[in-house]
Amino acid sequence: MSEELETRRLKREVLVRIIKAFMSDNYAENVRLIPYEMRPKGCEVPFRCCVYKERAVLRSRTIAGLGFAMEDDDEKTLLSDFAEKALKREHPEPEPLTVLQNACKGCPSSKVFGTELCQNCVAKPCMKACRFGAISNDGHRSVIDSEKCKKCGMCMAACPYRAIVKTIVPCEEACPVGAIAKGEDGLAHIDKDKCISCGKCVSACPFGAPHAKSQVIDILKNIKEGKEVIAMFAPALIGHLPCKPEQIQDAFLKIGFSAVYEVAQGADVTAKTEAKDFQRRPQRFPRRESSLRGLIPRFYP
């Protein structure tokens, strides 16, 4: 199983155990025991240096599964206390992403460098391609000055031997807005002012350090209290599960949701609403009336 799939499996197992704990008669205590049940004494340690490190990471995953940010964890609060706090919470926390610091590898910084594959060719295309004067030659190979290098990749594209490579930090490389980067401690931190909550860093990290804060307790609590809770699922879910849409709907209703809708239904409603708006616009914008009349019936009969 790949590392990415393994991190997903761990997240899913933690959430399943949280749900089972909520359904049990001893919710808070069963939540506290999750890391110990997943990594009991004497078990084989599959990922970390020791069972204690494994339990620490699982504790962090459980805190995120309860809907809390790891950045606010003082390491003294028991999981059972977090479980109780989750029940008392009125609204989920605004920022959906957090970083499990003890799961972060602290990857080396991204850089471009020349490898031993460099043939010290006469043409020196890499040096000519660099617009920042970051590449020199030591008589044996091309050398890149990391302080001058802008990581533009022009030298990589110019080298006929592909002897210049770039190392990346997966979470940083995946983020489209530069919201995640290493802090002074060398670990990943999310800038909440820049973050757009796209979740790409969560999918990219092979250690599962960036983590989504679950709202499963908030949902279960509202269902238990008899409140109206509506489930909306993506159409892609149908392709992932070996069942029909009707079966998925029935499953959500049996769980306790009041109603079930496919997310695409929202797009249909938006399209119909915009079509009606476009039909009204020719009266306000006569110059575009002819073009709109030709388009609207075709797409929105």
- Got a strand count? 10
Question: How do the strands of the widest beta sheet line up side by side?
Answer: 1-8
C-alpha Rg (nearest Å): 26 Å
Number of domains: 4
Description:
The protein is an alpha+beta fold and 301 residues long. It has 4 domains: 3-106 and 172-221, no CATH class; 111-167, Alpha-Beta Plaits (2-Layer Sandwich); 228-262, no CATH class; 265-299. Helix content is 45%, strand content 11%. It has 14 helices and 10 strands. Strands 1-8 form a two-stranded antiparallel ribbon. The chain has a two-stranded antiparallel sheet with strand order 2-5. β6 (180-182) and β7 (188-190) form a beta hairpin. The two termini are 49 Å apart. Mean pLDDT is 88; it is low at 289-301.
Summarize the structure.
By secondary structure, the chain is α+β, with helices and mostly antiparallel strands. The chain has 14 helices and 10 strands.
Notable traits:
301 residues; alpha+beta; Alpha-Beta Plaits; two-stranded antiparallel sheet; 11% strand; disordered C terminus
